[in-house]
Amino acid sequence: MSSRRLFAGSRLRAIRTERRLKQSELAATLAISTSYLSQLENDDRPLTPALIERLSRAFPLDWRDIGAGDAETRLAALRDANADPLFAEPVDAAQLARFAEQQPMLAERFIALHEAYRRAGQRLAMVDEALSAETGSVARLPWEEVRDWFHLENNYVDSLDRAAETLADQLGGLSPETGAIEAYLRDALSVSLVYSGQAGLRSFDAEMGHLTIDPGQPSESRRFQLAHQLAALALKDEIAAVVENARLNSAASRQLLFVGLCNYAAGALLMPYRRFRAEAREVRHDIDRLAQIFGTSFEQTCHRLSTLQREEAKGVPFYFCRVDMAGNITKRHSATRLQFARFGGACPLWIVHEAVAIPDRILVQLAETPDGVRYVSMTKGLVKPSGSYQRAPRRYAVALGCEAEHASEFVYADGLDLTAAAAATRIGISCRICPRSDCDQRAFPPSDRPISVDPDQRGVVPYRVS
Q1: Using CA of residue 255, residue 259, residue 264, residue 266, what is the dihedral sign?
Q2: Is 464 within the bounds of a domain?
Q3: CATH of the domain at 285
Q4: Are 58 and 35 in contact (CB under 8 A)?
Q5: Predicted TM-score (pTM) of this structure
């Protein structure tokens, strides 16, 4: 395969302009001289593999947007696989570039093998959860099967996301207004609508074409319920095709997946992919500002950010979860290397547990997992009103985070010391599988390591992890 030199002067200037950087500042970031950067920006010199690597690390979103050829796409995938903590000594950038160019078939098989390894680990965790369940049965419950389906799809459903985006374009505006959704339901789908609190949050009579929405919900929730029903009717063929291809084991699982896909499409309708991604980058993923721009709730906005995985225009890889007052993880997804505990409770050192008890306050944490990867996490306690004194409001917290290498794109990382050894909280996934032997917050010993007990010695816990 012949070598293709990459000239990207206009893109380098665009990055510098967007970030309001001087030539000297960008040159310092890339560890090159200002004169060398000037030559690159004028296309007098091509980018080297080492510079491509630095640009990918310093500006992951901007650099990903460049229309890369096969070699560059292969090299980017190799870099991601090579960064896995599985490899104690990663290959340097120049060697990776030569590998991608000179051995393309072998490189692609290495990438595929690493992806298979990653997915095998995820599936093994699912089997482990089933085997360890109190029932002793390997059969997953319907909600577990649907949750795992979304996880293995990387929380992105391309056909449905694009269909929802097209429908949003028809409704007009940056984000479809409540009136536009109501009009489409009425005029295009012959749905009559009434706001009443007598039939739950949302009730649809398919035979009569009658939709009832509880007016006691916050305005963002009412609008989301309207969008859900619109998606269920206008995109029913697209949703049905996804459900059919999912090959789930039970009718209940398929019905739950249908509901989950309607919710997914509702989020994609209210926060259309291209517009939402562009605004998110503009405000550096400031959740409150995005929620104001699109008229969505804090939770809806966080959840949508975790779905921006369209192949040619990916967003920051985020993890997202929702935790209730008892510490149960009721929603979870991760496009990062962080994987949530599948049962047994999350790490008590994770700041999301503190946020549940402190509503309407954003807390930020720099955390480090046992594999050495650091994450910036934003979490906020929320109270969802019930609309009635007779029903207690729902209290929970949501968390959104990314790996520290994307900190420059995440406004909540501002002011954090990302490199100091003592700056990060040393968290685990859960006590059951955490390898840390010196944690004062351990609730019980790890299931895969022996412990020793000395009756004459007592630390924070009455045993030592071997």
Answers
A1: positive
A2: no
A3: 1.10.10.2910
A4: no
A5: 0.76
